[in-house]
Amino acid sequence: MLLLAGCTPLGYYAQSVGGHLAILRAARPVPEVLQDATLSEGLRRKLILAQHIRRYASDRLALPDNRSYTAYADLHRTAAVWNVVAAPPYSLTLKSWCYPVAGCVGYRGYYDEATAQTEAARQRAEGLEAAVYPVPAYSTLGWLDWLGGDPLLSTFIGYPDGELARIVFHELAHQRFYVSGDTVFNESYATAVERLGGAQWLRDEADAPAREAYVRFDQRRRDMQALMLATREALAAVYASPAAKAGDWPQVEAMKQAAIRDFRARYAQLRAGWPADGRQGAYDAWVARANNATFGAQAAYDQLVPQFERLFARCGGDWARFHAEVARIGGLPTHEARVAALDAAAAGSTAIR
């Protein structure tokens, strides 16, 4: 996920800039933190591991070699920011907010949860479905490297080893390449980098317990992604149905609620089959608040991932070649042109050199 300050009204601009500067003020270089005699052994291990992951990202994945993730900040809260997303009652298309550099994106981030909830209530008052979700990390796209870059945060440093690697790879991917205003392309690319890079890191660097823990964790995620995709497709069919075209909104609402009930019932079945390891309820809150806005937001992160993964395979697993090809495609003038070129490149029969 990325977040850049800069938008009217000025109050939003002020909280965005002020929130990020507060994080930078809280950050200390990792070597300095490691000298703290009161540091827990668990946090010490994670910080050392994060430095190895950071070096791996640059050396093996051709991701930026800069100051990001070489400092640590304890935020004393559960999320770095809280994102607000909103969508119409009978559409999965997210409302957009526009920012300098980042362009128009389908969310608005706040450093204070209560303020985010107020914004979500404002969107509901305008007739939209809205949701607020916590974000453990974000990217400033490398623009603030001169201030120390993006630090490691207490909101994600305790993640399982494989997840810690993935989140660092994802955010660095945003620094490697970013298209202003194309959330789906950007997030799908970063998600592909985190999945492919995370799998490679696990093979190369992780011990057997970490790999086994990650397999369990990732299976749950894949189960949920498949269920979310199936539900998005069901909802999209409802919103494109003859009833919707005829403006029969009571019928559309009934079909919509049936799709949501089916989603929650299928989730309950999935959850019952997951290992009782203390993490089986990780998706409960997401499922409870699921609506058009949350399904629309999820789509941005995985919609084009299969194409990016196939493109990586066509590049022979060469990270530099892959990033260069992404930059070539990303340089096209429209989202539609980028998707068409990505589809063509991913489906090609010859290797990309």
UniProtKB/TrEMBL annotation:
InterPro entries registered for this protein in UniProt: Aminopept
Keyword terms of this UniProt record: Aminopeptidase, Hydrolase, Protease
Domain of life: Bacteria
GO MF entries: aminopeptidase activity
Protein name, as recorded: Aminopeptidase
Native organism: Pseudacidovorax intermedius
